[in-house]
Write a structure and sequence with these properties.
about 180 residues; mainly alpha; 7 helices
Length: about 180
């Protein structure tokens, strides 16, 4: 509703399409790796083994996948777009896709690892995160004087910073439990 209230239908369509097209594969990776992560972290907790090693290993894996996604989005895709004629159907979306790649890579890491909070029944941290997220999005959406491009960039930077904070909150909880 915010997008339609402040931007054209065309821009709202671009936002919706890019949000679905770019984030759908990232969410699929999140689901697949997240299920394995839950299995491994549950096993660590069940046998009273410190979960920090499992958390660190999955953090590294997700960071590497995020780097691949980031470089593909910022270097491979523009190369293909500029050199292959069959990609001309995406002309309308091309100028706007990078913010989705930026926050999608941060989202992949934090969202996947956030499953630890469910396994360890640390709902308070997730609740605090949800308040931060909602408040930031609400404040950003009140800035109706932003151009569509500026809004997308601001939105992606704000979400990226929030996902970094979320990661640190999750990591703190894992380290705290690992010391017990």
């Amino acid at each position: 509703n915010f997008i339609l209230g402040n931007y054209s239908k065309n821009e709202a369509g671009i936002y919706t399409a890019l949000n679905r097209i770019i984030l759908a594969p990232i969410q699929l990776i999140n689901k697949i790796i997240g299920d394995i992560f839950v299995s491994q972290i549950s096993k660590s907790l069940r046998i009273s083994f410190s979960p920090i090693n499992t958390f660190n290993n999955f953090s590294i894996l997700l960071t590497l996948i995020s780097i691949i996604i980031f470089f593909s989005g910022f270097f491979v895709f523009p190369f293909l777009y500029n050199n292959l004629n069959f990609l001309s159907f995406i002309d309308v979306y091309y100028p706007y896709y990078k913010p989705f790649i930026i926050y999608g890579t941060f989202m992949l890491i934090s969202s996947t690892l956030s499953r630890y909070l469910i396994v360890s029944k640390s709902f308070k941290i997730d609740f605090i995160w949800q308040i931060f997220l909602f408040s930031t999005i609400y404040i950003l959406c009140q800035q109706s004087n932003l151009s569509f491009e500026t809004f997308l960039f601001s939105f992606s930077i704000a979400l990226s910073v929030l996902y970094c904070i979320y990661y640190l909150m999750i990591r703190y909880k894992v380290k705290k439990i690992s010391k017990i």
